[in-house]
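Give me a protein, keeping tokens residue-aligned:
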Amino acid sequence: MHIGLYCPVETGHLNTMLPIGEALLLKGHRVTFVGIPDAQARVEALGIHFFPVAMESFPQGSIEKIFETLGKREGLSALLYTIGIFRHVSYMVLQDGAIACKDLKLDGMVIDQTSTEAVAIAKILNIPYVTVCSALPFNQEVGIPPVFTTWQYGDSWFFKLRNQLTNYVGSLIGKIIHEPANQFLKNNQLPIPTTFDSSLAIICHQPKSLEYPRKTLPDNFHFTGPFHTTTSRKFVDFPWEKLSDKPLIYASMGTLQNRLKNTFQTIAAACENLDIQLVISLGGSANPEDLPPLPGHPLVVRYAPQIELLQRASLTITHGGMNTTIESLTHGVPLVAIPITNDQPGVAARIQWSGCGEFLELKQLTVQKLREKVKRVLEVPSYRDCAQQFQQEINHSGGINQAIAIIEQAISTQQPVVDCAPVIFDNFSY
């Protein structure tokens, strides 16, 4: 089969989607990634065919400039800016994406849950598609707090009313984001859908135990567990010889909202007098020499080989991005989250709720408060025990094998996939 991939050109989304493309290639399928030019080099490095769209609106390097602006924002400002980005990308991709996908003669598509423009194109061309959640599932339930809050789960009427009112606001935001896709469908005489999720299958790489108790997910929703790999990422040079025998704390604020450089100052100061070694990844936002001297002289790098470092880590300090969170849990590493925007507050809340770590909101961040959180997670055994339980759950989950089996069944049969046993295949490096 010829299968198309589409997701936002951002590291976290690519880290979720590209292993799927790589695995589909190994299964003998033809795979084409449809996207804006900034993804081309990374996609083609895996042997996946790249088909560019919106080249005039988003020439090479334009996304980095957008991320640079986003990285300086936080909270509501960052959320509103992100909404604007999604709308602008949607409009531009819709202008020539439909023609591109028609010419490619795709048998099916795998589409990120946030990418409604690609769903609109698939519907126009009658291409079956599978939804992939690279962030927290956006599926609303009255019992589940909105993903952009740090609210804890509760089953009382008060919690449900609070969630329902806030979900209404979230729905209004969703309408703004979906407007380009809805207008495109309307212009092509197609009805506006109640959901952009696939009716065939929805795949979520989040461990099921990291999600609040869900009651109304559709039958075709599958928690497969993670399918991240090292092979789908570019090689990152790292000064391994500088690592000591002390417990390692790995700090990464992701690749988007990590340009708040005072946050790194606070992290370093909080860890300064602990008997540990701190490694800080700037996620490409700056060079180490751009920062002032940090307390405790941590090892600071522009990029870090995250998975390899997590194999050695005792604790992760994170912004609450889903990829860093589940990669930490894959290696049994507890976390302290400092969420900034988008779904990161929801991830942080689940980290604390599940018992694998703690979180501290950015507006409450101080050296003393962060040090207390770090010491608690390092010293109280239950956090590592919980993280190691997640590690066992992940090791026994279907992962990439189950994800590929679901995709193949959904696209080939064009019927909803409710139950699907994974097909194990070799030559795939985790």
Notes: DSSP finds 13 helices and 13 strands in the chain.
